[in-house]
Amino acid sequence: MKEHATTIGELNSSRILSIDIFRGLTIFAMIFVNDLASIKKIPMWMQHMPADSDGMTFVDIVFPAFLFIVGMAIPFAINRRLEKDKSLLKLFKHIFIRTGGLLALGFYMVNIGGLNAEAAGISRSLWMLLLFIFAILVWNSYPDGNSKQRNLFISLRFLGIVGLIFLAVIYRGGSLENLTWMKTSWWGILGLIGWAYLASVVVYIIFKNNLSGIAGVLAIFILSFIGEKTGALGFLDFINQYLKLGSMLGAHASITTAGLLTTLLFFDKNITSIRTQFTRILVFAAILFIAGYLLRPLYGISKIYATPAWCLYSSVICIFIFIILYWLVDLKKFSSWAGFLKPAGSNPLLAYILPSIFYALLGIFGITFLSNYFGEGLIGIFRSIIFSLIMLAVTALLSRIHIKLHL
């Protein structure tokens, strides 16, 4: 009989529907705000706050909401894997493959805008379309099948890998007088998620259900931003030139770690009282809010700079969103309204890249009517809402035919 590993953290193991809905809602919001960024003449609260402004809009909360959900899901995902196979070697192999996939996709995506089409011999739109087609071939979760089907799936994945290598080989950026290759830049949204995930999952494996230890690491992540700004981390410049340990890794990892702590505080199987569950995370939210309030005078609230106050306030807002969803969905059993979010919640990576595929197709065929006739004001806002809903519908359709990306 196969031996099973014990769980790392003592959590309730039942499915938490509110977490899935929160993830789907966040992906829907990400699609919406990304499309909304191309709309002119919209209210300030529907745009990112300027980098040097001390404040945040709802748009500035969308990315941290996904980071927070990534953190919340870590304990459940790690425990499920260890229950199936207690090998830590296999667990870390999965973690590094997943992180590597996110970093690779983020690395490619952040270089799309810098492609010199003339030097590369391929248009930016076509390069982008091929990137996502190859990515789907590589990271699709192919269904089980007979040996012939499995060989086909292996061939498709291999084709995707070769395709990604080909795109990297032909890539040329910069001017014709000073051509460059792909650069790490800021790693892109997916890359930032990858680094934050890696940091928080390692913290969870090391500290298990030691809440004080994890809270201490969260504080270190926040303080690393201050260390970077004051020059205290100058001795690590050989790393900071590729991955800023404070304003990039530490800041975003603090949000995923806050999500991780929320799960450990709220779903502790030794806590049977709903009142106690809510009290614990409300106290946690209050601590984060006070910390954000005290740190705000140092660097203000800025999503662009990923300041400590932005990280902490975003985490507080995410906690309250989760509380509302948990009360509505898991306690009151009112979830029918969220059916349209299910595809994005279960297939988030595909839902996230589908708009880019759509934009690439528009560019290839030179279609501009959306921006010409639906690119301003209220009609543009409605366009972004409808576009986001269509992307969720397409995600649902593709999921039914077994196109589901898994990292």
Short description:
This protein has 407 residues and is mainly α.
Tally the structural domains. Answer: 1
**Derived structural class:** mainly alpha
Beta-strand segment tally = 2
**Number of separate helices:** 16
The H-and-E topology, N to C, reads as HHHHHHEEHHHHHHHHHH
Strand order of the largest sheet: 1-2
Average pLDDT number: 93
Largest sheet data: 2 strands, antiparallel
The first-to-last residue Cα distance is 30 Å
Shape: globular
In terms of per-residue confidence, which ranges show pLDDT below 50 for 5 or more consecutive residues? 1-9
Q: Approximately how much beta-strand content do the residues carry?
A: under 5%
- Round the Cα radius of gyration to an integer and report it: 22 Å
Q: Helix amount, in percent?
A: 55-70%
Detailed description of the structure:
The two termini are 30 Å apart. The protein is mainly α and 407 residues long. The model is unreliable at 1-9 (pLDDT under 50). It is built from 16 helices and 2 strands. The longest helix is centred in the N-terminal third of the chain and has 26 residues, at 59-84. Strands 1-2 form a two-stranded antiparallel ribbon. It has one domain (17-111, 183-400). The protein is globular and about 60 Å long. Helix 1 (17-36) crosses helix 16 (377-400).
Highlighted features:
407 residues, mainly alpha, 16 helices, disordered N terminus
